[in-house]
């Protein structure tokens, strides 16, 4: 028997509202409460963290919008779903809340059935996201020191989890979809990602996939064959990443969902890797789900920290 009960944090400066919501949810979930934004943030950063937060907007000192902004700006609490509980039901209010990262709204006066349904739905979605995150983390750990032969189910998991510090999607290898012609900037973006993965903790680049994880295929790049695409890509890697790092990169074309995608695995390099093009040498790393350039003064500090 599974005795696990998700934890709901109710944040409202009116005790009567907390009591009302607690009465609706008690028995189904573990319930915690906070009467201010400051207390809510403290609870959210304390283990065990809440699995969902019901957050009032109109509170003194720190309103719900600011609490939500701070929750979503912290890697420790960013994934926790936030449902606003409010009497403000205007379209602009809802849009503002969603832009801050809230997943839903429940309006006052509370309807018990609606409250329970919204909480249950978003807890289920949160649990699914956490499962995908854990699976993706396991996959990343597997490739940290060796290449993998991905099965289709694992690729599905990577696509579902989305872009992260160890995963990036690119729609094309060389074709600019806006100008409808080949563009070195598109190639550079792929090469920078590879350099960043090598300088960080490994990663997987999927080409032929849009930002949302939808398969586009490789046809738009216009190569006559898969061999010519790989020949072109490997030539770029040798020229702009370096022949000495080719042993840490494995590129292969996978057939998936009726489309071809380029899957590039990058292992962690023990030496600094610079992206070289047009007489420049630039050092890139992964930060969150993005690739960032470090200033020369930052490179040594980063390398020291990486090896510590």
TrEMBL record:
The keyword Acetylation does not apply. GO terms for biological process: phosphorelay signal transduction system. This is Response regulatory domain-containing protein. Keywords: Phosphoprotein. SUPFAM superfamilies: CheY-like. Residues 7-123 form the Response regulatory domain. It comes from Methyloprofundus sedimenti. The modification 4-aspartylphosphate is found at residue 56. Signal peptide: none annotated. It comes from the Bacteria.
């Amino acid at each position: 028997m599974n005795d696990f009960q998700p934890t709901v944090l109710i944040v409202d400066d009116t005790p009567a509202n907390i009591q009302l919501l607690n009465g609706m949810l008690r028995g189904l979930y573990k319930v915690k409460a906070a009467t201010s934004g400051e207390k809510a943030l403290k609870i959210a950063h304390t283990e065990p963290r809440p699995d969902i937060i019901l957050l009032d907007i109109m509170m003194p000192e720190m309103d719900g919008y600011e609490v939500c902004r701070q929750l979503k700006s912290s890697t420790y609490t960013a994934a926790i779903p936030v449902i606003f509980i409010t009497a403000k039901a205007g379209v602009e209010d809802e849009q503002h809340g969603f832009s801050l990262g809230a997943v839903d709204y429940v309006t006052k006066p509370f309807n018990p059935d609606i409250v329970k349904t919204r909480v249950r739905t978003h807890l289920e979605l949160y649990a699914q996201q956490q499962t995908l995150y854990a699976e993706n983390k396991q996959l990343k750990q597997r490739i940290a020191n060796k290449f993998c032969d991905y099965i289709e189910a694992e690729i599905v998991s990577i696509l579902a989890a989305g872009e992260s510090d160890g995963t990036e999607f690119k729609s094309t290898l060389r074709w600019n979809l806006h100008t409808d012609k080949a563009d070195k900037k598109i190639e550079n973006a792929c090469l920078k990602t590879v350099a960043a993965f090598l300088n960080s903790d490994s990663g997987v680049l999927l080409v032929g996939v849009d930002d949302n994880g939808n398969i586009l295929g490789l046809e738009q790049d216009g190569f006559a064959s898969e061999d010519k695409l790989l020949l072109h890509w490997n030539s770029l890697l040798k020229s702009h990443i370096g022949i000495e790092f080719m042993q840490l990169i494995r590129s292969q074309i996978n057939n998936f969902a009726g489309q071809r995608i380029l899957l590039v695995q990058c292992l962690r390099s023990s030496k600094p890797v610079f992206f070289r093009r047009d007489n420049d040498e630039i050092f890139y790393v992964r930060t969150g789900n993005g690739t960032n350039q470090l200033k020369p003064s930052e490179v040594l500090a980063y390398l020291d920290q990486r090896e510590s």
